Amino acid sequence: MKLFLTFLFALVSVCINAQDLEKLSEEVTEEGIALYRSEMASWYGTDVVKENYKNMDNIGGYFSYLDDVPKCIFFSKQNKVVATISFPTNYNPDNAKVDLSERDFTPTEMDYFTIRQKALTRINNDTIFKRYNNTNFNLVPIIKKNSKKVYVLTGASVNNVVIFGNDYLLTFNNKSEIENVEKLHKGIIVHDVGNNSKGADASGVHSHVLENWQQMTPTDICTLMLYQKLTGWETYTTISKKYASIWNNKSNKAFVMKTENFRKIANYQLEKNKKSENKDTQDSNK
User: Fold this and answer.
1) Please, what is the angle between helix 218-226 and helix 2-52, to 10°?
2) Residue 92 domain-assigned (yes or no)
3) Which domain holds residue 41?
């Protein structure tokens, strides 16, 4: 009876862990895609505004958000909206709706503007934020229900470079006051993809060491989706002492598992490959 109970408890524990990992996978995927949608609107919104707005020196900043469709808002140095770019779901700039009329922020836009500006002030006054040559910070405000956040990503200002890390998360309370600032990676990871060979086996990897971010981060997913056409990576893996996370470009989903299980699978595959190579060698010598 004791043996049966021990087995039962172990089975329940495995099921609970599997459910927890599945939930973690879904949460990080959802957040990463939300970041990607915002950044896509900002990327293309910037191009559209440069083509249509004649007084770029008047621009004080921009942010994007989802309002039935993705929108990118550009505001003046007087904090007035001067350009509203609305995109279809495919983000085709040719099909974007451009509104260059000056107006006040809507209540929703004011919430985004407020946390963005507070994040920018914190970035300029807090030494936790590191700046590197040939890079710039991208601020991505995300508001969901009672959750207010600003992610800070580091983007390359040169071609054929993809950057992970040197990213941050600022969380706000319901009064739009900063409650916490944290790093999502310990350092910066730079991938030179200029000579990258694309294909079904194209992939990349980096490690995570921060205790609070053992899994793949939403910023990792956002970066992978933004640069997929450039890198050709079909999969990408992050590894920490606790979790191994695998991003699959075809399914647009992160899969999180325990690192110990990941290593067992990897070792099994390695042994299988070795046996196959040895068999091929033996066959060729016959």
Assistant:
1) 50
2) yes
3) 20-276
Among the listed residues 53, 104, 98, the one whose alpha carbon sits nearest the alpha carbon of residue 72: 98
Which secondary-structure segment (H or E) carries 68?
A: none
As for how many domains the chain has, the answer is 1
Q: Give strand ranges (E) for 91-134.
A: 97-99
| Sequence-distant (≥ 6) Cβ neighbours of residue 59 within 8 angstroms | 49, 53, 74, 75, 76, 77, 82
Cα–Cα distance list, 232 to 118, 225, 226 (Å): 36, 10, 11
Listed residue (137, 135, 117) closest to 39, CA to CA: 137
Residue-wise pLDDT for 167-216, tens only, equals 999 999 999 999 999 999 999 999 998 765 565 556 889 999 999 999 99
| pLDDT 10s digits, 109-158 | 999 999 999 999 999 999 999 999 999 999 999 999 889 999 999 999 99
Domain assignment present for residue 10? The answer is: no
- Tell me the pairing of strands 97-99 and 135-144: unpaired
CB 165 within 8 A of CB 186: yes
